[in-house]
């Protein structure tokens, strides 16, 4: 938060100076735990506009771009042929509840871009970028996530977040009311292939995939799409991958496959850059001032709590 605080506060000063998929879907996540709203400010929910139904997840990269699973967008477009994505879905940010509220913030989809080597049949290079029409308002519960630029060590603790149910066939009403988190360990591709060999699935472990394994404590299931795989490094959440492939749905002894984003770092950075040549700087400054105000308020609240704790300690010692 410190790095972003400095950047956004500086930007605020400069601104002042300048002036249905389907009615029923398969089970999604087993043995997940509820997530607090402040834990995952980068989480995005793609919602079917007509019924406001959760379709898939993604993660915020910056003020204009959400990263998600290419296969998810590809299948959605073919489920509703002839309709542009902007008329099918919208993006909700800053919430962990499955059902939307009247004051939730939604963003219009402007465009989407598949990885140039995306292969739906093979689920290769399974990543897409979705651009919002409006600038995303950052606040305490809406923040971008840093993209990991290099590989993660084998055995690293990672977390996956999405909404889910606890039954084999689930309608929307069966999904958990709050966002779910599943903790796992990243494993090597060789170990992943070995674990998948009893089902002859080892050839589906590509070089651009990162496998995660819970060793029986939980599972990622069919229907989990586009959600972020995150690790904590240097005290910061960093984006490792997006959900891509379920080798054996809902089996906690089988690893799950994610698109390895550090392999695509250059493409993601280039495609998600924000072109400010046609920027409405009045709108941009409003967004930045809002973020700066949120950060200052959080800092004041932190100072207030520290003073209260110190005062209570002094009173107890008196």
Automatic annotation (TrEMBL):
SMART domains tied to this protein: Tryp_SPc
Q: Which domain of life is it from?
A: Eukaryota
List, in alphabetical order, the GO biological process terms annotated in this UniProt record.
innate immune response; proteolysis
User: Record keywords: Glycoprotein included?
Assistant: yes
Key words, A-Z: Disulfide bond, Glycoprotein, Immunity, Innate immunity, Secreted, Signal
What sections of the sequence does the record tag as coiled-coil?
A: none
Q: Name one GO cellular component term.
A: extracellular space
- Record has Cell inner membrane as a keyword: no
The record's section on SUPFAM superfamilies has: Trypsin-like serine proteases
An MF annotation (GO) of this entry: serine-type endopeptidase activity
Indicate where this protein is primarily found: secreted
Signal peptide, first to last residue = 1-23
Domain Peptidase S1: from-to ranges:
29-273
The places in or outside the cell where this protein is found are: Secreted
Family to which the UniProt record says this protein belongs: Belongs to the peptidase S1 family. CLIP subfamily.
List the protein's name: Peptidase S1 domain-containing protein
Which organism does this sequence originate in?
Anopheles gambiae
